[in-house]
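Private note to self, pasted from the team thread so I don't lose it. Backbone tokens:
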């Protein structure tokens, strides 16, 4: 008799557990598997095994913290104030303290009788004096265009020529234009930037790239005794550039600052002759349809039209831009990839040339004497060399004379600069110190520096 009772109780317990498991599975049948996992029990129900006491258990959410799984409370709707004509709301404004049963007073905004920039409230955009219905597309130093150099070529109506002009490179090949012990001094400049100019284990990239650029410029300036025209130059930084032009039916502007500018008293000579400039009319600009040419440019409605400023006063003794120097990691809040970085170099070189052309020739379309500006970009090891020649300011259409740019990209100055040797499988793959120095890269740097001084 006792055996039969135990058997019946076991049957009832199994039936109860099975019913409870089935009900929980049926309850959670529409939920995803990962949202109902519990600390114990089968997937889908969290049912306690062997008839244990059921209790609520926390669900596991993979990939996010628990604080992010909570549902945000809905935003409170502001109470609608009903104004009844002819009735005056009784408030506690005269009593100057809260009184239950009386309405909250509404006071007018207090306006100061003096200007305080800390509490300035700008008017709506459409009420600003410079507001215009037609948008303007702005390129600044943090713009990262999708199509890179191709997009910059279309925006500036420019023909791309790979490599630097041969007659510029030949300037640095002449022994009379070279620095005494040139290769040794350049390698010492690299070692100073990568190894010696720091109290840490190794300098940061932002630091050694800037140090190396300044060292190379200073090294080139030692030729002033044999090339007096170098003394008619000056370095400037944190200048503000502004240039405006029309491309098709759209209005474009370049605004912002680049890291370093080499100014000179005399303009750079034209790189290509008049016949080569005339031949650019047959060049067909590359398009990137269906991508819009204005992609990634800032669209603004508050702007000044016909803004062209080199960033310096009219009586500045060094009015002509010679070379722009760019550092790839100069802005910690905006790091550009190599392709947008080269597009940034091209756009700001074009902007400096365009602003100078408007100062010299005014509204003249085809320039009698082209404006030439150079640019050098680096990340501390790889260099980008660019020479831009502005032939025309008529950029509205795709036909006619085009501008020209010579671009030599991704030129390595050295292979490795290791504080410690790179060892793999007990073999030294890269020794400590400077390895793989390439003197041809510095010759290109020196050629651009001496352009206009030889």
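Design output:
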């Amino acid at each position: 008799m006792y055996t039969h009772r135990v058997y019946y109780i076991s049957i009832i317990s199994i039936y109860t557990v099975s019913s409870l498991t089935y009900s929980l599975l049926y309850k959670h049948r529409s939920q995803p598997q990962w949202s109902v996992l519990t600390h114990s029990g089968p997937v889908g129900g969290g049912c306690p095994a062997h008839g244990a006491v059921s209790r609520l258990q926390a669900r596991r959410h993979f990939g996010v913290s628990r604080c992010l799984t909570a549902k945000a409370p809905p935003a409170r709707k502001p109470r609608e104030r009903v104004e009844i004509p002819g009735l005056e709301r009784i408030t506690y404004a005269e009593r100057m303290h809260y009184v239950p049963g009386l309405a909250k007073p509404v006071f007018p905004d207090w306006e100061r009788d003096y200007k305080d920039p800390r509490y300035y409230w700008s008017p709506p955009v459409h009420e600003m004096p410079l507001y215009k219905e037609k948008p303007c597309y702005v390129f600044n130093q943090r713009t990262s265009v999708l199509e890179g150099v191709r997009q910059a070529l279309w925006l500036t109506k420019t023909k791309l020529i790979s490599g630097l002009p041969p007659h510029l490179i030949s300037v640095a090949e002449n022994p009379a234009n070279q620095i005494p012990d040139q290769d040794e001094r350049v390698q010492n400049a690299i070692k100073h930037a990568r190894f010696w100019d720091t109290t840490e284990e190794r300098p940061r990239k932002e630091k050694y790239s800037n140090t190396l650029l300044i060292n190379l410029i200073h090294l080139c300036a030692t030729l002033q005794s044999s090339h007096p025209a170098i003394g008619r130059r000056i370095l400037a930084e944190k200048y503000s550039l502004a240039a405006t032009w029309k491309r098709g039916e759209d209005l474009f502007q370049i605004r912002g600052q680049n890291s370093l500018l080499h100014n000179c008293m005399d303009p750079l000579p034209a790189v290509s002759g008049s016949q080569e400039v005339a031949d650019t009319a047959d060049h067909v600009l590359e398009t990137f349809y269906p991508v819009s040419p204005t992609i990634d440019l800032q669209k603004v409605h508050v702007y000044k039209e016909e803004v062209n400023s080199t960033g310096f006063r009219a009586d500045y003794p060094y009015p002509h831009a010679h070379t722009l120097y760019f550092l790839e990691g100069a802005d910690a809040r905006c790091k550009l990839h190599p392709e947008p970085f080269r597009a940034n170099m091209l756009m700001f070189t074009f902007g400096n040339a365009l602003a100078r052309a408007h100062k010299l020739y005014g509204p003249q379309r085809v320039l009698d004497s082209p404006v030439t500006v150079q640019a050098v970009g680096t990340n501390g090891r790889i260099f980008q060399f660019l020479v831009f020649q502005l032939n025309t300011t008529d950029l509205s259409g795709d036909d006619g004379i085009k501008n020209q740019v010579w671009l030599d990209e991704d030129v390595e100055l050295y292979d490795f600069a290791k504080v410690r040797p790179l060892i793999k499988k007990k073999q030294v793959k890269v020794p400590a110190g400077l390895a793989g120095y390439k003197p041809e890269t510095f010759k290109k740097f020196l050629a651009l520096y001496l352009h206009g001084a030889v």
